[in-house]
Design a protein that fits this description.
This protein has 232 residues and is an alpha/beta fold. The two termini are 33 Å apart. This is GD13052.
Length: 232
């Protein structure tokens, strides 16, 4: 157990360091992962589709939901291809906060390390599969990239020309408890109309419930975030 945890820490450290140093495009065995610019939603989906085609024995894509603006929520399910049933699963998501553009890039590079650079990281897949959602809030991410750089939330209408829910505050534990701005539908910290009012939060919840019910839930759930100017 400690070996796999240490390996995960090393992998995440490598990913962060390589993203900080990356210039241009990374190539390995004909597959391209662009690191010099933050990919759009379409670019991320295209990379995942290409990866699933070129490494079909080790990665399968699953459409796990649809956002308010009808974008797909996709999860990459990664294995070493040994066919061993019932392996435990490490679950990772990224970009619940849409302005944290580094997190989808880090998730994609993690996928790249596990799949394309499998030989170097095969120990991380010996006893565990990985399920990774590299873009858990695509509506907000695209709005942040194209319209309002520091947009943080979903794009669900709240009425009164107010939009979006802070997905970190939309889970059931201590929902709407604490800061008054959690109840303001125009505030970036708005917790939503009810726990799990947002399809993105429900999707993360349902994935984890499914893993627990199937007894495949592993030792770790990782939700990638980056530093920003927020209070909450």
């Amino acid at each position: 157990m400690w070996k796999i945890l240490c390996g995960i820490v090393v992998l995440v450290t490598i990913v962060v360091n390589q993203l900080a140093e990356a210039r241009g495009v990374r190539r390995r065995r004909g597959l391209t992962l662009q690191l010099d610019n933050y990919l759009s939603y379409d670019g991320i989906m295209q990379y995942l589709d290409e990866l699933a085609l070129s490494h079909s024995s080790r990665v399968t894509l699953k459409d796990v939901g649809r956002t308010y603006e009808n974008r797909a929520l996709k999860m990459a399910m990664i294995t070493n291809g040994d066919g061993r049933p019932g392996k435990r699963v490490i679950f990772l998501d990224a970009a619940l906060h849409s302005r944290e553009w580094m997190t989808p890039a880090a998730a994609l590079l993690t996928i790249h390390k596990l799949v394309v650079e499998f030989a170097e990281n095969s120990d991380l897949l010996t006893d565990y599969d990985w399920h990774i959602m590299p873009l858990a809030n695509p509506d907000g991410y695209e709005y942040s990239r194209n319209t309002e750089r520091y947009w943080r939330n979903t794009r669900t209408p709240n009425g009164g020309n107010c939009f979006g829910t802070n997905l970190n505050r939309n889970f059931a534990v201590d929902w709407n408890v604490g800061f008054p701005e959690l109840k303001d539908p125009c505030d970036e910290n708005y917790a939503g109309s009810s726990p799990f009012s947002e399809v993105e939060a429900r999707t993360v919840r349902d994935i984890m419930h499914s893993l627990v019910e199937s007894k495949r839930a592993a030792v770790m759930y990782l939700s990638l975030h980056t530093a920003n100017r927020s209070v909450l």
